Automatic annotation (TrEMBL):
<protein>
    <submittedName>
        <fullName>Uncharacterized protein</fullName>
    </submittedName>
</protein>
<dbReference type="Pfam" id="PF02458">
    <property type="entry name" value="Transferase"/>
</dbReference>
<dbReference type="GO" id="GO:0016747">
    <property type="term" value="F:acyltransferase activity, transferring groups other than amino-acyl groups"/>
</dbReference>
<keyword id="KW-0808">Transferase</keyword>
<dbReference type="InterPro" id="IPR050317">
    <property type="entry name" value="Plant_Fungal_Acyltransferase"/>
</dbReference>
<dbReference type="InterPro" id="IPR023213">
    <property type="entry name" value="CAT-like_dom_sf"/>
</dbReference>
């Protein structure tokens, strides 16, 4: 087994950590880059046996005494929930505390190809439209030439009001926020564009705990899948959009549907790897991808005992993603 790579740096140039940074950094203007020792994804894809799956970089700002922990985690190890649980455990060990339940579970379930269902393929465009590695990397890097990242901030009070307008207890705050962003794009950008008017939401869903035979709560993996909603009854209605998103997520909790989806996706992903291709994250007509960290309190769960003194930053987004 390869050890976790850990780098320590003392920074004497930066007086203090800048507080004006956006939580989601822009890829082509990544101010976080000097503080991260990035995992070399190309090497991993090329079957390197030496490239670590996790790299940590600890930087001390000498002038202010602040510390920055840069984490680069290969997605093949697990999703955001798995990473957060791992970092929370490190944070608790640092404080001489026991790790929180649930304990990590590493067992994998094998999926049988003969149980796949081809009628699910229209829900999996990101897999059925996978492309050559070089083409996909080129596409992702070209977004900076055609799109700009838009950063929005909402107060707790604004989110509560939005939640009430979108349907209150029948939807979640995340549903409400997603619906508001979709409604804004449909109203001011896509109203007269039949190819771009957003009519469906493709939500990245954590399926841990739906069934222990599929993925228990502590599963260390990419226990996520993309649930495509039905068409919105009214793509210019906040409540219609929010409630349609909520129905799709409720439907995703059906163990039978989940098993069939995962079995079908497993066959596609094995084929993608065998053919040396990559998942396609481009915008498909009339769809938007929702992949949220809203439910994860990174700053509080990975604070190493410095309560209410930590901030969290991340990187990467894409068009209508």
């Amino acid at each position: 087994d390869n050890p976790i790579t850990m780098t320590y740096v003392e920074n004497t140039d930066l007086a203090t950590w800048p507080t004006h940074l956006n939580i989601v950094a822009e890829v082509h203007e990544n101010l976080l880059d000097p503080f991260i020792d990035g995992v070399q994804i190309i090497k991993l894809i090329s079957d390197s046996q030496d490239e670590p799956l996790l790299r940590l970089k600890l930087t001390r700002l000498v002038q202010s005494g602040e510390w920055i922990l840069g984490v680069s985690w290969a997605h093949i190890v697990g999703d955001a929930a798995a990473l957060l649980h791992f970092l929370n455990t490190i944070s608790r060990f640092y404080q001489h505390l026991e790790p929180l339940d649930p304990l990590p579970v590493f067992e994998r379930r094998l999926w049988h190809e003969d149980e796949a269902n081809q009628t699910f393929l229209p829900m999996m465009k990101h897999l059925t439209h996978a492309g050559p590695l070089q083409e996909m990397f080129q596409r992702y890097s070209s977004w900076k030439d055609t799109h700009e990242q838009l950063n929005l901030r909402f107060s707790g009070e604004q989110l509560e009001k939005l939640h009430a307008l979108a349907g209150g207890h029948t939807v979640t705050i995340q549903d409400s926020l997603s619906a508001y962003l979709i409604l804004t794009l449909n109203t001011y950008c896509y109203r007269d564009d039949d190819q771009r008017l957003i009519q469906r939401a493709n939500t990245v869903v954590n399926f841990r705990g739906v069934s222990n035979s599929i993925a228990p709560v502590g599963h260390v993996s990419n226990a996520i899948f993309m649930m495509l909603s039905e068409n919105f009854d009214d793509p210019l209605s906040l409540q219609s959009i929010a409630k349609t998103i909520r129905r799709s997520i409720v439907r995703s909790r059906d163990p039978q549907l989940l098993e069939t989806w995962l079995t079908t996706a497993d066959g596609l992903m094995r084929k993608i790897v065998h053919e040396n291709r990559m998942v396609n994250w481009r915008q498909f007509p009339n769809e938007v991808i929702i992949n949220s960290n809203f439910r994860y309190d990174w700053a509080a769960l990975v604070d190493f005992g410095y309560t209410d003194k930590c901030r969290m930053y991340t990187i990467w987004t894409g068009p209508v993603y």
